[in-house]
What we know:
The complex is a heterodimer of chains A (435) and B (474). Chain A has helices at 43-54, 60-69, 94-106, 112-128, 133-145, 159-164, 167-177, 193-204, 255-267, 272-280, 308-328, 332-345, 353-365, 376-382, 385-395, 409-419, and strands at 11-16, 22-29, 72-78, 83-90, 183-189, 226-232, 240-246, 287-290, 299-304, 401-407, 423-430. Chain A has 435 residues and is of the alpha/beta class. Chain A folds into two domains: 11-204, 2-Layer Sandwich (Cytochrome Bc1 Complex, Chain A, domain 1); 226-430, CATH 3.30.830.10. In chain A, the strands form two sheets. Chain A has a six-stranded mixed sheet, with helices on both faces. In chain A, strands 1-5-2-4-3 form a five-stranded mixed sheet, with helices on both faces. In chain A, helix 1 crosses helix 4, helix 3 (94-106) runs parallel beside helix 8 (193-204) and helix 9 (255-267) packs across helix 12 (332-345). Chain A is globular. The model of chain A has no long low-confidence stretch (mean pLDDT 95). By secondary structure, chain B is an alpha+beta fold. In chain B, the strands form two sheets. Chain B has a seven-stranded mixed sheet, sandwiched between helices. Chain B has a five-stranded mixed sheet with strand order 8-12-9-11-10, sandwiched between helices. In chain B, helix 4 runs parallel beside helix 9 (248-259). Chain B starts with 14 loop residues before the first helix and ends in an 11-residue tail after the last strand. Classes of the chains: A alpha/beta (435), B alpha+beta (474). At the A-B interface, helix 2, strand 4, helix 4, helix 10 and helix 12 of A face helix 3, helix 5, helix 11 and helix 13 of B.
Amino acid sequence: MNAPSTINKPTVLVETSHDLPLVSISVAAKTGSLLDPEGLEGLTRATGRLMRRTGGGRDAQQIDAQIDALGGSLAVEVNPSATVIQGTVIRRSLTPFLALMSDVLARPGLSEEELGRLKRETQAELVEALDDDRGLARRWFRKMLFDGHPYGRPVSGVSTSLERITRPDVERTARRLVARDGIIVAFAGDIAQAEAEESAQRLTQDLPSGELPADTTPEPSAAPGRRLVIVDKPERSQTQILIGGLGTHASDADHTALLVGNTIFGGTFTARMTQEVRSKRGWSYGAYSSLPIDKRRQAFSMWTFPKAEDAAPCVALQLEMLSALRSGGVTKKELAWAKRYLTRSHAFTVDTSSKRVGLSLDARLYDLPENYYEHYLARIAAVSLEEVNNALAARIPEQDLLVVVLGTAADIRTQLETAIPNLGETQVVKFDVEV
Amino acid sequence: MPVPIATRARSTAGAASAAKNARRSALLEKLNADASEWGRISHVETLAFGPSLQIERFRLKNGLEVLLCEEHSAPVVAYHTWYRVGSRHEHEGKTGLAHLFEHLMFNEVEGREAGEFDRLLEEAGSEVNASTWLDWTQYNAATPRDQLGLLVKLEAERMSRLVLRDPQVTSEKEVVANERRYRVEDDVEGSVSEVLWATAFTTHAYKWPTIGWMADIQAFTTEDCVEFYRMFYAPNNATLVVVGDVTESQLLPRVAKAYGVIAPSVLPLEDVRPEPAQLDERRVEVHKPTSTDKLLVGYHSPAIGDWDHPIVSLLVEVLFGGRASRLHQRLVRELELASEVRAFVGPFKDPGLIELFASCREGHRAEELLSVIDAELARVREEAIPDDEIERGRARFELGLLAGLDTADGKASTIGFYDTLLGRPAAAFERLDAIRQIGASELRRVARKYFPEGRRSIVLVRPQPPTESAEEQP
């Protein structure tokens, strides 16, 4: 990829590939739902979606029909730290598609009527989401782990917070999302550098100048002790289990070592967790651990989904494995294996132009250390056994641990409480309480 | 509608093509001179895959088909093995065997430890997975180009030297039972979809789910698995699809050596029981732990190879595809009765189902959704669909096809799917050409034929009455 062009703001990233007659365009802002005011959760996401539906003063039906007619797709993704308007279009329609995107960014109608409709649609989607056990468990895990921190608040909002959102709220937020000086535009696919830069200029020329608001979000902190939260849902034959605590930050000195350690513990199909939980015991179809990154420290979590009768022994096994990981570390053989896996499989993180430009975009959106992805392979190669084991002992939580289990509480509570040594607090929450 | 027959490739003209053919002939001559009994390999045909790529079809003497699509944009290779066996080949009481077997294929082969397949391939940086459906089972792997040799060897080994033992079968049955709990028992949509298919089909093997009924999964024996393996896992029941940064001279010697030692099987005669025409409306009402009513409707669809399949697919796109579609506009946007509506035309070897799904908003009933859907279906049976709506449907198809071809893995999936079902690996592009030529009259004809009044299956899903909370906050 060519060096990003920033001469005439915004920052423009380009990855050209003429393999397919497709162009993908991402217009991204380093601001997301963390800035939703308390009580107005869901505001940033609602604003992005409303812009998408009302670009150029069109109504949503017109804009959807036009996107389809051009052979395009246009979506708005909002997470705590970033908002990305992502479009893909068949190359022959690039010019009118860019004009439409420009209308979405610079001239959204944000009509009161469409806002009302969008709020009702989102509320209905939240009701639908109650059928998704995995999604529910994840929402509760995030809420309880980051309790009191903005990370614990729902990106989509809840019914009552959506109800409170007004048109002036949305107009204010829209200005924040498209402040020209904070925008990054990324192109991938059938478009050359010069055309991409010129297109970015056209996309952003009508945006208001302005800088992003300062991000004053504090680092999250861990609640002390072991906590069990049972999300009580009737007639569950199976449970959804998430166990974890605070994880890694990309600027930690031991960040790469921790990623390697997690790969050995639960990062692949042959990692310890899958072997013990799935292959040896058949308890869960999947068993993984993860360490996502963002601007602030994120979670470390283990995920399994055994049947209700196996929930308590599965939690007990996972806690034993966690303890063994921290105290005993990983072996030299495991480390060598993980390094080979991570190094060779890297080919699949950069095998398409959209993936390559996506990495560059992420590095900027989440303030990753300089050359985070460019030096990734070198960092993996340099990690030592001692560094991995020190990182696991220092960073993987064992005592300040949250266990979230979605299931039918009457069937699993007693066994779970027995299976968790040094358990402090148990909370049973109803699955249909909004979070 | 004229269906374009563009399968046979334009043979590449000119000196470059002649040189390539000469190199291939020399390569095959050399390979065949040293070939094992079943390893003799022949070039069958050259096919165009879209505007810029080509597929070369080879065949080993043991019947193994090899489709190679060279594509050098990234140093990776997708390597898919498609077996022509799915849940349609099962019997009552043994449902789910094809899917369980897919799991077992990752366990142990002769001369290697259990789990070594996954361990070696992950160490090689490969991405490995598999899937089973009604008509087929496919094993998909993608590997860095310099690790291809290992992948070819391991895939060939498990085609003929799989070890099946009681402890592994027992453990894997439990994994599959847990997969079923996840996808079906505790998933409202998964469970009611099974009800719809079991209602719409009375005779054909499509009436049971690919994952199998729970009682069948739990009753399988190791002997069942051994018999299934011997019956269906053979080179003459499989196609290798290889896409990516690899040449014929790099691939074919490895394939001939690894698979050339495997003898073909005598494949069983398939026992297909055609589904009789549905002449009635079948209606089932179920209660599930969900917050709102759901509606599922199934109409019998044409088979994937039927002339009408792309036409029905385009019609369904106009009616249900995306936010600008007719039913989304009516149910979600204008009337605000539904939170979601969508439809799917089964891409199956035999006639399957056109599945319609809609989820009510709170305070509304499934019957309200059905009456709006019925009105829109009646409309397309009578009125011509305007050109702009047809054009939008076509553009959505084209975008969907192109987006699916972004990776080597995506191309291999597309090629393998159409070759397995139709014997035409580039049929995705044929369908696109066909869709470009469909007009309003054809859409109205298929609306009348495939959305007949009173001949369908309906599942009405009601929320279960609330129960007393078993647990209270301490």
